[in-house]
Amino acid sequence: MKRKPIFERKNVLVTGGAGFIGSHLCDELVKTAKVICIDNFLTGSEENINHLLKHPDFEFLNHDLSEPINLEDLPELKPFQIAFQGVQEIYHLACPTSPKEYNRYPIETLLANAHGTRNVLEIARKYESKLVHTSTSAIYGEPLENAAYPETYWGYIDPIGPRSCYNEGKRFAESLVVNYRQKFKLDLKIARIFNTFGPRMKLTDGRMIPDFVYNAMKGKDVVIYGEEGDTSTFCYISDMIEALLRLMKSHEQGPVNLGNPEVYPIGDVAQKVVEFVGTPAKLTYEPRLPFTARQGVPDISLAKEKLGWFPVVPLEEGLKRTIDYMKGMPAVTLDALRKE
Ligand code: NAD
Question: Is 40 in the pocket of ligand 1 (CB under 6 A)?
Fold first, then answer.
């Protein structure tokens, strides 16, 4: 049964809302909507949402989405009046996400994508909610050439390699979304996110920018896992949040590539970090880790045409904001987060 909102504010569900992207999304959504954030803190952190916990239009549920959930049963959601108002929008981000976690949580990663996505799609089905599913550039696999990927590219993937739990999990999840859309005639959208960075990225997960900043701040060697010519793209978090909000509002269902198409040698980015942090840290290269992969470049023509979106924050500006955030953290917190 389709339920029209009876309050001024929509009910919006964010899964994985205590993670890096999800917490920034919650910050933005809570300005105009009532936000339910579900997370099990597998790779997210309470630190990311602490400031929201007292907000009257924000509710956090600690739940593993691989298990079903009935929102109408939960006393803490009473103010959301779910039985009457339903859930208008869902942003589905819950999935362990970081190169190192694929080694640590392979089964959890597969289950979050399979059972987790199914449980979230069942919520969308029950309330006829609009949904944005966050997929990834990883579904394209290893780049075969330097050309940018359009959404029509099918990918080149090792189905049983060290990253397969993530790559194949995400491919399955996309298929589930598309088949729910067709079978139940729902407004379900797919965003294919490329490398994104900014404040609140986890410090222990092997992603480039927080690793570079932490090591530079500590005056340690800044290690690049790969070869000297390796390149990547870097989208700043505020640009990504704007893209996800626009996708939800649009009539486009995707898949839509979202990322920054500017390509940088990773060594140059590490060098900029060292310069902005202001320590004499040294760059070193080490062999690529088995669970990391070369990064492809997004073709964002579709996002430009259908969402009127393209990234606007220059890399240097994003790096400075990320460094300021990390420098602003108390040293003990920074070190504790690094050790988790
Ligand atoms: P993140 O790890 O910071 O956030 C994911 C959140 O999901 C975490 O808070 C984690 O605790 C939660 N989670 C994991 N399994 C769960 C489960 N079973 N039940 C409930 N919560 C669960 O990652 P992120 O960078 O914020 O990524 C968000 C989404 O965007 C992910 O789906 C990711 O695959 C996708 N994505 C991110 C990037 C990027 O560059 N950050 C790139 C491509 C795709």
Answer: yes
